Amino acid sequence: METAGESGVQPAIPDAPNLQPEEDYPSTCQSASPEDGGERITPIDQAEIFRALEVLERDSLAIAGSFTSLFASLRIALSEATNCSVDHMQCFSDAAGHLQESVLDAATKGNRYINSCLRLNQEMKGVDNLAMQLKILRRNVDALDSAVSRVVRLP
């Protein structure tokens, strides 16, 4: 199979100058003479047209293959990005769930600690009265001890 360079016909490139030399090909059609009252028919080389069409067809197939490959690559990249996003969202959801559990656990423990402190504070209010009673009791015991010591030393 010939490629575009081997056939002598270059593929059509938009906005590119025609680099092919202009050649006169022998006509395959009969031209009518102006005397016969007919119109002048330009020479057409069907083989060259078929070669140009072959090149055009090959280039079109190559472009279609490139587009197919490009779209397949884009589909794969989008699929990977989507899968990555879904994985990240699941990871974020799991992390948020664990964080929520930890916060609830910490709040529960904090409330227990605060309630224990309040209970201890209430109990400590009664300790002040008990401490006062102990001071009074100690003075009385000290007074009794002094009295017993005086009595025992007397003889």
TrEMBL record:
User: Per its UniProt entry, which superkingdom is the organism in?
Assistant: Eukaryota
Domain BLOC-1-related complex subunit 6 C-terminal helix positions: 51-145
Q: Which residues cross the membrane?
A: none
Pfam families under this entry? BORCS6
> Region labeled Disordered — which residues?
1-40
Name of the protein in question: BLOC-1-related complex subunit 6 C-terminal helix domain-containing protein
Taxonomy, top ranks, is: Eukaryota, Viridiplantae, Streptophyta, Embryophyta, Tracheophyta
Which InterPro entries does UniProt cross-reference here?
A: BORCS6_C
